[in-house]
Amino acid sequence: MAAAEAALLRKKATLLREAMRRSEAVREQAVASVGGRMAAVDAAVRPAQERTRNACILHDNVARSLQAVQEIVRQFDLVREAEPVISTGPSIGISAYIETVDKLRGAKDFFTTKIRCKAGDDVLRRVNELLPKAAVVLENEFSRLLSKCSKPVELELLFNFVPSHSSADDPLNPVALPTLVDSRYMPLLSKLVQKSVELGRHNQVLKVYRDIRSSTLELTLKQLGVEYVTVEEVETVQAENLSAKVDQWIQCLRIAVILLNSDHIREGVNSFLLVAEANKSEQGFMCCPCLKCKNEKDYSCSRDIKSHLLRFGFMSSYNVWTKHGEEGVMMEDGDEEEDNDDQYRSMFSECDDTAMDDNEEEGGEEQASDDPVDDDLRRAISDARRDCGTDKERLQFDKMLEDHHKLLYPGCEDGQRKLGSILELLKWKAEVGVTDSGFEKLMIILKKLFPRNNELPVTYEAKKLVCPLGLDVRRYMHALMTVSSTAVRSTRI
């Protein structure tokens, strides 16, 4: 029983092994068949795949070529559209013209760095012909626009931009500068300069700017009165015109002095205003010692006086502030500014009376004295020199006597003396009541009318000659009138 079962099991095992061997053989045949078929399919599909890949590559090449051609055509169109614009100029507007120039520069860069083709060489050659023309047009437009907005600065505007504070370095008070070019034109001018420089016209644009701005500056200086004049022109020009030119020159020089020495000038003006404020009149007014007012106008506000002093300048001969609180002060240069017609009127009247009295008294002594004229002269000079306390005063008095003997002009037939003529003019001024400015103009006219090299001075020089010591005006006027009267008697004798 057991043997039968074992034999059966062996038989079944043998059958199973046989079945497995056949199954393995079938599997191998199937694998071989499938492998062969797959190889055949792969061999059949590979050419199709190659053709497909080639077709894709071709498609990409065509697409890139079309894109490149489109860019080239677009650059061709830009150059074609820009050519008439460059030829006709900025008639369509300067901004559109600048955009056209930018397009041409873009086309040049495109054909220079990106694309190389025969047609591109032709276009590049044409662009190189158009760009220099465009650069010249931009340069001319820059010159025209800069000339249009570059106007000479008026004198009044320059005065308004003079620093209004004591220190130009103060960050809290920045110095305002005049506007030389209108801000509306600055963006366009900047763009024109930038494009011209990009086109290689840097030197030309710089020359245009230098020429236009220098000519504008020259016109500004001419408006200020700064112009070249020869000695012959000064001698032939009329006194009124020359005076006006001199005033303008002084104003121009004053601007430069104020700008260069602002701190020192304003400190001096502020010091003067402190003295003037402390010595106001009872009504609260102060005299203005500027070259325009000359102490003839009063102001209640020191700010107005400060503005006048900075604008017109301080009277150079007003060294002692007699109208602003100073009294009994000797001037260093012997020049006195105070112009009081009442003082001169009473002074001349008193001197005339005294001189007449002296003449009457001395008239009786003429017969008894051998030389009364010399006695009078010696006595007058001795009295005057006795009052001179210092050597400087004596030298100044001797200078006054020298002016007394000096002829008014060479070859003066009537024998008019320098000092005597000045005394007569000052006496007339005091009697008539002529202002300082009017008297000064008269002196200028008289100096022009008299022969050349005459000794006639200007107004304040005349006062300096009359009272060189700055002391006791009546005493010296008496001495001078005495000297003059004795000189007259000497001519009669």
From TrEMBL:
Residues 354-374 have a biased composition (Acidic residues). Gene3D superfamilies: Exocyst complex component Exo70. Residues 262-326 form the Transposase-associated domain. One of its GO terms (cellular component) is exocyst. Residues 354-376 are annotated as: Disordered. Pfam families: Exo70_N, Transpos_assoc. This is Transposase-associated domain-containing protein. It comes from Lolium multiflorum (Italian ryegrass).
